[in-house]
Amino acid sequence: MMYTVFTSIVLLSVTGILSGVILFFVAKKFQITEDPRIDAVESVLPGVNCGGCGYPGCRKFAEACVRAQDFDKLFCPVGGNKGMVEVSKILGLEVAEKEVKIAVVRCNGSLKNRPRINEYDGQARCKIVHNLYTGETGCSFGCLGLGDCVRVCKFGAIEIDEQTQLPMIDEEKCTSCGACVKACPRFLIELRYRGKNHQRIFVACSNPEKGNIARKNCSAACIGCGKCFKVCSFDAIKIGENLAYINYKKCTLCRKCVNECPTGAIHEINFNLVRSRQAQNPNVSIV
Amino acid sequence: MKIFNGLASFPRGGVHPQELKLSANRPIEFLSPPRIVTIPVSQHFGAPAKPIVKVGDKVKIGQVIAEANGFVSTHIHATVSGTVTKIEMCMDMSGYKRLAIILNAEGEEWLEGIDLSRTLKAEIILTGPQIIKKVQQDGLVGLGGATFPLHVKLSPPQGKHADVLLINGVECEPYLTADHRLMLEKGPEIIVGIQILMKALNVSKAMIGIEANKTDAIDHLSKLTKDTPGIKVVTLKVKYPQGAEKQLIEAIIKRQVPIGGLPIDVGCVVQNIGTAFAVYESIQKNKPLVERVVTVAGESLNRSSNFLVRIGTPVSYLIEVAGGLPEDTGKIIGGGPMMGKALNTPEVPVVKGTSGILVLPRMYAKRDPVLPCIRCARCVSHCPLGLEPYLLMNLVEKGMSEEADREAIMNCCECGSCAYVCPAKRPLLDSIRLGKSFIAQQRKEKAKT
Q1: For chain B, what are the domain ranges?
Q2: Which end of chain B is more exposed for a tag (fewer CB within 10 A), N or C?
Q3: What ipTM was assigned to the predicted interfaces of this complex?
Q4: Domains and CATH numbers, chain A
Q5: In angstroms, what separates the C-alpha of A104 from chain B's closest C-alpha?
Q6: Chain B residues touching residue A209 (CB < 8 angstroms)
Q7: CA-CA distance, B16 to B333, in Å (whole number)?
Q8: Is the link from the previous residue into B241 a cis peptide, with omega within 30 of 0?
Q9: pLDDT digits (tens, 9 = 90+) for B223-281
Q10: CATH of the domain spanning B128-285
Q11: Chain A residue at shortest CA distance from B438
């Protein structure tokens, strides 16, 4: 009895010590030296692993930063300019300030503007509905309102508004990581500049159908009439496929177009009500 | 595999839903054409046809209004005589807007050379290649629902040869009775149609598969085929999805179509009863595919029946004829209740692949709340293809499309047996369809680069 216990203790200790010694040398021999700056960079990154930078997670982004010669193509949208400055402090590279972006929903098919013509009772996922048919409304390009974007947002920045059944983006929480842009099966969400004082304007419609058809299904549809294009003196507006698009890089927020739009498809955000042109536009029904 | 009662069927899985053949005793009624028809240019599998008429043109019934665009495509014919009023995007049965030609009916004028008499013409004059050319010109497609262009099926790729023709008279979906009535009323014509198909394919053997719940049709066709060499009627066990091509082949001649393969790989071609009748009309009567039999049924519908309908007729017109839309309607379904699709508006047109219009009461049409999977594996044992639906659903939900592809998700025939038997009412098929479309898209992108 004692003998069995004794031998097993000896045997196990000898194997343990032996393998310990072997492993020590193996570890020495095959040691991977990792740049300590990677850990340092990772510690100042937000650590949400959202993929907004284009890399699979913050660690990979940190590795890319350490490897990089300059920061032209590297930007963490969540950390923003402040975060990038901290990264640059560690790595000693210069970083140019970039315009901060925010997600906007290019659809204004609220319950009031776009009446529901049928009822969907299947699985509540935008992707499935988009695969199945045009949706509950007559517009086959507009928001389905089932919240695929809400589910992918890691920051809780999107909510479906109960009154309009459209996604509402929380300006403070949105980090422009772009997860919702990829999640939307109808490509309605776009990342645009936040703008001065967080003010911006955009065309809230993505329906390329002819004006009369688009208007039949949604009273707030862009009909591609070109009025905004004519009034814009900065060459910021383009008309293509019966749809106006405002180039946020050229737009100076003069808002001449907002008043001109016959359907109120051009939205302005964060202008106070007294100065709001959208509110003065007689064609618009703000929900 | 022979089962206890001696009737043949496919060996694995399958379900037996309530049959509910409400309109089985109603003869096929001729429906006078509506005033306006909407004819989509993509009613078939393959490339959409190209419109060759302009707004304002006068057309006659049977005139080609859209031409085939490539080999896997067919002609589209005018189904009423009158004027082309619009060519625009219209909602069709698929739930999407597609290009359609809208005709305003004025009078009833057929194109010259179309034989409208009812006399049976049994003698086949045309040769095989001529038959294939003629069915292509007449816009014939498989009328079972997949709407695969007929001439493609009849011209096997080089090196492959069919030795048997299978005729699908199964009609395993509940409610639908269009093929059943056609077999009873147009038996002799169907037999001639089958002989034409046999000649085109150069085969000497044809088998008509009919499920055991249609005894009158089995008797009728057996009597008719008694002295026609090569054609045999096979009685099959009542089981869904027996009408699916691969299952039918396995049930009748015990051959298994390989993954990603076609029936021609195992030496057979499957055609629907409706197609056989359309072939007869096309070859013997020179009549293009302008009408088809559609079952209109529903529990609270006044007059569930079978109608001979011009293609392009709005569904709302059909429902009107069948007694108007009942108040308790929950869903209108295009096709059978198992594989059909709910329509988002009754203003969509009947197309070549529409076998039925079902008006289901609210109590049948609703979806039950989804509960967690209890791992009973009923979906696995009922899948006719031996897939694991619960696993596929989970993989798709997690976005693991490569793994789902490895689990043969693309082999799914979307029969819906898994979702039908699931005690937790999980939307298995919805997810599988999502995964399939995602993978198909990925493959297309890969092929491009």
Answers
A1: 34-107+290-365, 128-285, 378-448
A2: C
A3: 0.84
A4: 36-91 (1.10.15), 101-269 (3.30.70.20)
A5: 25
A6: 89
A7: 20
A8: yes
A9: 999 988 899 999 999 999 999 999 999 999 999 999 888 899 999 999 999 999 999 99
A10: 3.40.50.11540
A11: A131
